[in-house]
User: Fold this.
Amino acid sequence: MGALVTITAEIAGADAQDWAYLLMKLYWNWGINHNYQVNLVEIIDGDSAGINFATLEITGRYAYGFLKSETGIHKLQRISPFQTNGNLQTILARVEVIPICDAAINWEIPEHDLKITQWRWHGKNLKRSQPWVKVCHIPTGITVFCDQERSQMQNQTKALRIIKSKLWFLMQSQSVQDIAKIETSSIKSLSTKPIREYILHPENRVKDLRTNVETTSVTEVLNGEINFLIDAYLQQQSMTHS
Assistant:
């Protein structure tokens, strides 16, 4: 089953946005190195560096089974390259991973529950249309913005697929069989727990806070070599539930 990986800078500013961008590259490289298909679905660039927010679609066998271990808060500790005071910075980014809804699952979102916003041109001398589409599921407030495809129809199709995946994931999490039965008051982020720290100063170290597995190979981890971290977590979960 494929996975949707969303990376969000926890606060404004170049450091947080740069950290979110580094994590996006980490998962992009991980997917490519595993011969998965990786696509950028939505992105909001940072004000001066990096990104505020991005979602990757990673498709291939067991992609979600592996990447679900990455949901949580990722903490970076380093001296900021964007400030001259030389102070040590602690920066947070949030990662959320959900499965891509199987196309064989036969249910539809009621049209009256959707608000679809598309780019419209009202002036003259149009040189280039903007194909972006924003889709909001009104009852839950879940919103997806897609602008990476070449046409509005393609972006709308992808946005609706992501909305459907997120709603399906919520239904599974809340053990309900109908979209209308999703408890909006109980929708909470599953990614608020710190799971890993990446220390670049005063030493080089990456440590998983759940399994206590750590390494000094920070560069390799940031390049997407995280299999040993994923395997340790999945083994821990298997032993816990056995």
Observations:
- The chain has a mean pLDDT of 89.
